[in-house]
Amino acid sequence: xxxxxxxxxxxxxxxxxxxxxxxxxxxxxxxxxxxxxxxxxxxxxxxxxxxxxxxxxxxxxxxxxxxxxxxxxxxxxxxxxxxxxxxxxxxxxxxxxxxxxxxxxxxxxxxxxxxxxxxxxxxxxxxxxxxxxxxxxxxxxxxxxxxxxxxxxxxxxxxxxxxxxxxxxxxxxxxxxxxxxxxxxxxxxxxxxxxxxxxxxxxxxxxxxxxxxxxxxxxxxxxxxxxxxxxxxxxxxxxxxxxxxxxxxxxxxxxxxxxxxxxxxxxxxxxxxxxxxxxxxxxxxxxxxxxxxxxxxxxxxxxxxxxxxxxxxxxxxxxxxxxxxxxxxxxxxxxxxxxxxxxxxxxxxxxxxxxxxxxxxxxxxxxxxxxxxxxxxxxxxxxxxxxxxxxxxxxxxxxxxxxxxxxxxxxxxxxxxxxxxxxxxxxxxxxxxxxxxxxxxxxxxxxxxxxxxxxxxxxxxxxxxxxxxxxxxxxxxxxxxxxxxxxxxxxxxxxxxxxxxxxxxxxxxxxxxxxxxxxxxxxxxxxxxxxxxxxxxxxxxxxxxxxxxxxxxxxxxxxxxxxxxxxxxxxxxxxxxxxxxxxxxxxxxxxxxxxxxxxxxxxxxxxxxxxxxxxxxxxxxxxxxxxxxxxxxxxxxxxxxxxxxxxxxxxxxxxxxxxxxxxxxxx
Length: 667
What we know:
Elements: H1 5-20, H2 25-39, H3 42-47, H4 49-54, H5 61-68, H6 75-83, E1 87-90, E2 95-101, E3 107-111, E4 117-121, E5 127-130, H7 134-149, H8 154-167, H9 173-180, H10 186-203, H11 207-216, H12 223-229, E6 235-240, E7 249-253, H13 262-271, H14 281-290, E8 296-297, E9 300-301, H15 308-320, H16 330-338, E10 341-346, H17 351-401, H18 408-425, H19 429-454, H20 463-485, E11 501-503, E12 509-511, H21 512-534, H22 536-546, H23 548-553, H24 558-581, H25 592-605, H26 610-630, H27 635-652
Helix pairs in contact: 5-7, 6-7, 8-10, 9-10, 10-11, 11-17, 14-15, 17-21, 17-24, 17-25, 17-26, 18-19, 18-20, 18-24, 19-24, 21-22, 22-24, 25-26, 26-27
C-alpha cells in the first residue's frame, strides 16, 4: 500500500470513532430535552392549560381538538385518563400528570409521555384536579372514537362502530369520514359507509348532502335506515288562527273527519289556549260541590241539583257571579272550530328533506311488501313440505288400500321417539340423526306391517270399521308412549350445522331445519317416483290400485302388495316424525297435530296420487300461512277458515286436484 494512503485512512477511522462513541455528558444533557420536547405531550397541554382549568363544555373543544390532532401516541391514553378523572395539573409550572391512589391514600403521579412513576404525594396541595363533567366526557368520547376507528385491531374498530351506532352524534361525522379511505376490512368499510350516511342525514348542516344521503337509501331494508328516516317525517298536530308561515306543514285537517274527530279538534284549541275548556259531567259536579253556599249553589237549592237542567242553571249562576269561567256551548264549539285552521307539521323543518325522506320511505315500503310476500311464500313452502312428508305415507295407504288409518299420526310419533332414543345412545347429533332416519323407517315399517297383518287385513272394504279400529290403535299407542317416556316433552336436538337461519335480509329468513326438511321432502318425492316407476313393487302397486282382480289374475298377490304398501306408508311416516321432531317437542300427541292436515292434504290433492299430494300440501301450507298472516294472534281462526275452505273446495272438486282412476277413486 502506498505510504500516502496512511494519513487519509487514519483520518477516516478517527472520524468514524467520533461518530460512533457516545456523546459526553454535557452533550447528552442538551440533546435529550430536545428529543423529549419533540415527542412530548406537555407543550400541547400547557398551551391549552387555561382552557383545561376552566373546564367548561362550551370552551373545552379547542383543547380536545389540540390533543386529538397532535398525532402523538400518548394522546388517546391522556384522553382516557382525563375522562376517568385521573389528570392533575401542578400549579407551579402547569405540568400535567396522571394520578392514581392506592389503599393507603397515597397518590402516585406518572409521566404522561413515558408512563413512568415520577413521585408520590400524601395530599393534593399545589395541584389542580381536572374533573370533567358528563358533557365534557361526552366530547372526550367523541374524540376517542377518532383513534378507535383507525386502530390496527379490527375488533376495536368494530367496537367503535357499535358505539357510534348506539350513540351517534354530529362530532362523529368527521372522524368517521376520515377513517373510511384507509379501512382494509370490507365489512367494516361497508359499515362505516352506512353509518356515515345515517349520521349525515341526522346531523349534516349541508341540505344537499342530507338529501343525497337520503336518496342513496331508497329501497334499503335495513331497520336502522327506517329508524333514521321515520323521525324526519314524524308529524305533530296543531291549531292556529291561520296557517303559520315558515313551518313545514304536512297537511291540513278538517274537524269532524276521520283524521280529526270534532272533540279532538276542539281539544287542540283548548291546549293552545285558543278556546275555553269543555266541562264534563264529572267536572260540573266537582265544580258545584266546591261552591256550596248556605245550602245552595249559584242560587239553586241543593235538593234541586238532581235535575241536569238545575245543575246547568246553578253553573250559569256561578258564571254570572264571576266565580267560575264560562263553559263552551255547542254553538261556541262550532264557531271556534270554524274560526281556526288545523294542520300537521313535520318535525324536520326543511320541506325538501321531508320530501326526499317520504320518497325513500315509500320506496322502502314497496320493497318491504314484496319481501313480506317472499317471506310468506317461504314459510308456506316450508310448512307445505312438512305436510307433504307427514301425508305421503297416508297417501299411499289411503290411496292404494282405501284404508282410513287414524293411527297414522302415531307412526309419526314413533319415528320422533326413535330419534330421541338414538340421541341418548349416540351423543354425536349429526351421526344420531343420520342413523335415526333408516332406523325410524325400519321400526315404523315393522309396526305398520304388524298392524296390517293383525288388524287391517280383516277390515278391507269396511271403511267405518277400519276407522274405528285404527282410532283405537291410535289411543293405545299414545298411552303406551306415555307409559314408556312419560308426559314430559322430550327434545330431539338438531346438529350444530342445522342451527340458525338463512337470512336474506331484515325481512326474509328461514331456518336451516326447515330447509333440510324441504330437501328431505324432495328426496322422498324422487325416491317414491323411482320406486313407483322403476321397481317391481311399484309396478305391482299400480296394478293393484287400478284393478286388483285383473292384477291377481296376472300372478300378483294383492294381499302381499297391500302388506308391503301399508308398511311403506308407515315407514315414511316414521321418517317424517324424525324431521318434525327436530323443531317440535316430542310428545305422545305430536302426531295428532298433523293427522288432520295430512288427511286434508290427501283429500285436496287427490287420493292416491303423489303429485296431487304435493299440490295439496302446498295449497294447505299456503292457505294456513295466509290466514295466519291475516289473523296473526288467532290460530283457531286459521284452523276454522282452512276447514271451511276445504269443505267448499270438495264441493267443486270431490276427487281432489288430480283425480285417480281405479279402486281408490271408487270405480
